[in-house]
Design brief:
12 helices; eight-stranded parallel β-barrel; 36% helix
């Protein structure tokens, strides 16, 4: 949890709001394809995936460009770009916006189902942080988010909600020319095969917790160099890391939830142990603590 004073955090938030119009230039080379950035390379610095793009930091709501900007500035380093995991849903008039929940109630000052609200109506509400504090920020569109990421050099893993077609998301990625910044999250072999057909140029986040799950994906024709593997929310056997790394497949360990709680209770040095064991990326609700544990440069 961020220990800054509330007033200081809010002032940073408002600064981010205006500075996001001309984003800081990252040291990461944005011309490097996501198929290279998300591949396993021995010796690479571990990546930090910020679950929902933040949200547990006071004054910074989840799925919000201002939060993405703040967290990215805290954890990025030249050899390890920040990775923003974020959620895409749909308004009544088919605008793709960044929202995790099906309703506006938890994360905004509004109420009701997102799918029953037009984009214009959604823009009338303000985002709230995870402590329920309203902010000055509004729900961004996917297009705005991707354009920010392209200029910033940030990486995304895009979680596509049930109301949204993968084809619409792929269209937005191509429209914003962010193929080098994006991987699409899938939760089953059917969706992974669909994304593979729709967008052979994009990386796909797939669930691989054992060799059998890998074999199912392989049999569907998904190339090793197009997938990176979510290995679950508990530490796997070291043999799984060895198996995937031998194929050039990078791994994501979901520390969000129980492992984050374990690290908070027993010490953040656990994050270093998990990456040393073979996790190439940690998906976390505690990005600042993970960055400190992994000795990230530039952490403020």
């Amino acid at each position: 949890m961020n220990r800054f004073q509330t007033s200081f955090i809010y002032s940073l938030a408002f600064t981010s709001l205006f500075s996001s119009c001309s984003p800081k230039t990252t040291l990461t080379n944005s011309s490097i394809r996501a198929t290279e950035r998300f591949r396993y390379v021995a010796g690479n610095h571990p990546l930090i995936s910020v679950h929902r793009g933040g949200g547990d930091l006071r004054g910074f709501p989840e799925n919000c460009i201002e939060s993405f900007e703040y967290v990215t500035g805290q954890i990025e380093r030249p050899d390890a770009p920040a990775v923003i995991e974020c959620d895409i849903d749909l308004t009544k008039d088919s605008v793709l916006v960044m929202m995790h929940d099906a309703t506006l109630d938890r994360t905004t000052t509004g109420t009701g189902k997102l799918i029953e609200r037009t984009y214009a109506e959604v823009q009338q509400v303000k985002l709230e942080d995870n402590q329920g504090n309203p902010t000055a920020f509004r729900v961004p569109t996917l297009e705005e988010t991707l354009n920010w990421g392209r200029k910033r050099g940030a990486m995304f893993t895009l979680d596509v909600k049930r109301n949204v077609s993968f084809a619409k998301v792929v269209d937005q990625v191509r429209k914003t020319r962010t193929e080098n910044n994006v991987a699409i999250i899938t939760y089953n072999t059917r969706d992974a095969a669909l994304v593979n057909r729709l967008a052979p140029e994009l990386m796909i986040s797939v669930t691989i917790r054992n060799e059998a799950e890998y074999n199912q994906l392989h049999e569907l024709g998904i190339p090793d160099n197009r997938m990176f593997a979510f290995v679950g929310v508990k530490t796997p056997e070291s043999s799984l890391y060895t198996f995937l790394h031998a194929k050039g497949i990078a791994t994501i360990l979901g520390t969000l939830g129980n492992l984050d709680k374990q690290a908070a209770a027993k010490g953040d040095a656990l994050y270093k142990e998990w990456t040393a064991a073979g996790a190439d990326m940690l998906s976390t609700d505690r990005p600042l603590e993970v960055a400190r544990a992994l000795n990230q440069n530039g952490l403020r």
